[in-house]
Amino acid sequence: MAAGTTRRPVPVRRFGSFQELAEAAQLDDVAFLEASGRRLFDRPGPRPEEESGTTMSVWLRQGDGGTTLEVRCRLELAAALADFAVDAVAVFSLGGPFALSAEEQQWFADQVGVTVLYPYLREAVHGSAGKLGVDTPLLAVRSPWPPASGTDQK
Q1: 24-132 has which fold?
Q2: CB under 8 Å to 35, separation ≥6 — which residues?
Q3: How far is CA 121 from CA 16, 54, 57, 82, 110, in A?
Q4: Residue 112 DSSP SS3
Q5: For labelling, which of 27, 48, 57, 72 has a CA lying 20 to 30 Å from the CA of 64?
Q6: Rounded to a whole number, what is the largest CA-CA distance in the chain?
Q7: Angle at CA 93, nearest 5°, toward 88 and 99?
Q8: 113 contact partners, CB below 8 Å, separation of at least 6
Q9: Cα 141 from chain centroid?
Q10: What is the pTM of this model?
């Protein structure tokens, strides 16, 4: 940069609606952080149903200098004959620097990030079960976890 010139600040984009935010987001990448299955070997029989269960955790963060959103989902499943863990991240670009309210962040993670990642998580569990030779746990076609309250519309 030549002496005496100044850089103009790049404007920070704000979104007027959830729809505008969703339309601006472009999916750049989906990557697995973990995809594993472990057959239960040391049990005399299948795991009792009351010990079985599924949990899913979701995180969101800005990346790449404030121009991308990264949504991470981790699914842990304790099935009758195996344990599964799948962790994946989806990276979305928003075309430049942006600012999101807490409500927009929650909505994006729940409605866009989980919607994109859940089929990948489900398929990874299905593939692991096949490799382990155990019954495939049936997971809903869409994520069964409801979005956080108050994030349905803006």
Answers
A1: Bacterial Protein-export protein SecB (3.10.420)
A2: 85, 86, 87, 88, 124, 127, 128
A3: 31, 12, 12, 16, 15
A4: helix
A5: 57
A6: 77
A7: 105
A8: 58, 60, 69, 71, 73, 90, 92
A9: 15
A10: 0.81
Taking CA atoms, 37 is separated from 72, 84, 85, 103, 139, in Å, by: 19, 4, 6, 35, 15
Contact criterion met (CB below 8 Å) for 67 and 93: yes
Domain ranges within the chain, ordered by starting residue = 24-132
Q: Per residue of the chain (154 residues), give pLDDT as tens.
A: 556 667 777 788 898 899 999 999 999 999 999 999 999 987 777 777 777 788 899 999 988 888 899 999 999 999 989 999 999 999 999 988 999 999 999 999 999 999 999 999 999 999 999 999 998 888 776 665 555 543 334 4
Match 């030549």 to its residue by tokens: 2
**Residue keyed to tokens 């979701």:** 58
Q: What is the DSSP-derived secondary structure letter of residue 70?
A: E
